[in-house]
């Protein structure tokens, strides 16, 4: 039997959750003896350029109609030449562009993945997804949590009949560091409670709340790993609050260094305005960190009783919680143990098996 070939298509190359999912799925498929690649529509940052199975169509985001059409044409020719047995797409624009072109290129098995609530999509993307998902451009469609599934409940029956829930899974971060050596490598203080946050510097992640909450806590150090369009704004906030000695913006870390950052930390915090699953949070749970997150349905679904849930707009509650945890090592340890047990639910092989089953289960 010929070796199956699967192409994973993602919108932009950067250190995001969808990108991590595509890369880890690709790696696991290769380990299982299949052929697999990850294709990024364009390179936003060079996060995965060193991986032999990674390709990208464009060196930067297309900035005009002609460039966009040229990118689409290039994707069509790549698919026609590669002739993959199946295509899996990640993020809403990759779903729309990748799935449509894969169908035009004659790819028989096409799996879209919905990785955020439908209402968080731009209006145009939401309507196009509604239409092409209902018409069968996606042969199958995956929601990464029940919370995401509920956000699509008003969609047409033909759309929902092609859909199923498969929880995200991932590998635990790997590190050879211990806590003190990790702090030394990252130039972090040894005598403070380190609060870690990982995520794009974007409106969704709500990092400004963390900065506001931490600016008056001398016992804590906030460390944010990520980059994005709000970096200058957050740097200005740090200067205005005069807390540069208590807040560190690390920028985007290579995936292989995330484990080092997490082991350096005492608490993981992410006050997102919305999430579909929360890769960064689950990675922190895998490393045994107590997690403090925004009170979202999806966070309660994924984390269960293994975390602390707070309102996204109450910086005093966040500050008081951090102070309480900083003063109570035994509580941090208990929450961290709970988190690690809960994280065992999110197994990479279970996700990969679910994707392959739905991808090739018929049209």
Describe this structure as you would to a colleague.
By secondary structure, the protein is of the alpha/beta class. The chain has two domains: 5-169 and 347-359, Glycogen Phosphorylase B (Rossmann fold), CATH 3.40.50; 179-343, Rossmann fold (3-Layer(aba) Sandwich), CATH 3.40.50. The protein has 15 helices and 13 strands. It has helices at residues 17-31, 65-82, 92-104, 123-135, 146-151, 157-161, 179-185, 207-214, 231-240, 258-264, 279-286, 297-303, 315-326, 329-343, 348-359; strands at residues 5-13, 35-43, 54-58, 86-90, 109-114, 140-143, 163-165, 193-198, 220-225, 247-251, 267-270, 291-294, 307-310. The protein has a seven-stranded parallel β-sheet with strand order 3-2-1-4-5-6-7, with helices on both faces. A six-stranded parallel β-sheet has the order 10-9-8-11-12-13, with helices on both faces. Helix 4 links the parallel strand 5 and strand 6 (140-143). The longest helix is centred in the first third of the chain and has 18 residues, at 65-82. The chain is globular and about 60 Å long. The mean pLDDT is 94.
């Amino acid at each position: 039997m010929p070796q199956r070939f699967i192409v994973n298509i993602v919108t932009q190359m950067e250190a995001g959750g969808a990108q991590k999912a595509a890369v880890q799925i690709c790696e696991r498929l290769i380990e299982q003896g299949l052929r697999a690649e990850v294709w990024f529509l364009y390179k936003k940052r060079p996060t995965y350029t060193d991986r032999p199975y990674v390709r990208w169509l464009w060196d930067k985001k297309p900035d005009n109609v002609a460039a966009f059409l040229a990118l689409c044409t290039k994707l069509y020719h790549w698919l026609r030449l590669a002739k993959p047995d199946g295509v899996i797409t990640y993020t809403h624009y990759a779903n729309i562009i990748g799935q449509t072109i894969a169908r035009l290129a004659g790819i028989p098995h096409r799996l879209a993945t919905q990785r955020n609530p439908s209402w968080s999509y731009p209006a145009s993307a939401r309507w196009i997804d509604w239409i092409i998902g209902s018409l069968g451009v996606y042969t199958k469609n995956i929601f990464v949590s029940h919370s995401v599934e509920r956000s699509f409940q008003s969609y047409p029956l033909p759309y929902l009949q092609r859909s199923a829930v498969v929880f995200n899974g991932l590998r635990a971060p790997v590190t050879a560091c211990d806590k003190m050596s990790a702090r030394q490598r990252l130039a972090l203080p040894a005598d403070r409670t380190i609060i870690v946050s990982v995520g794009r510097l974007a409106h969704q992640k709500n990092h400004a709340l963390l900065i506001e909450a931490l600016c008056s806590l001398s016992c804590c150090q906030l460390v944010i790993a990520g980059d994005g369009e709000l970096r200058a704004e957050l740097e200005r906030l740090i200067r205005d609050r005069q807390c540069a000695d208590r807040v560190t913006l690390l920028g985007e870390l290579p995936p292989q260094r995330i484990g080092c950052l997490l082991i350096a930390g005492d608490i993981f915090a992410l006050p997102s305005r919305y999430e579909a699953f929360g890769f960064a949070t689950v990675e922190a749970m895998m490393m045994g960190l107590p997690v403090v997150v925004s009170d979202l349905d999806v966070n309660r679904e994924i984390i269960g009783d293994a975390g602390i849930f707070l309102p996204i707009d109450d910086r005093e509650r966040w500050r008081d919680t951090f102070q309480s945890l900083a003063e109570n090592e035994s509580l941090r340890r208990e929450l961290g143990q709970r988190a690690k047990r809960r994280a065992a639910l999110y197994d990479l092989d279970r996700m990969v098996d679910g994707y392959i089953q739905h991808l090739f289960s018929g049209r």
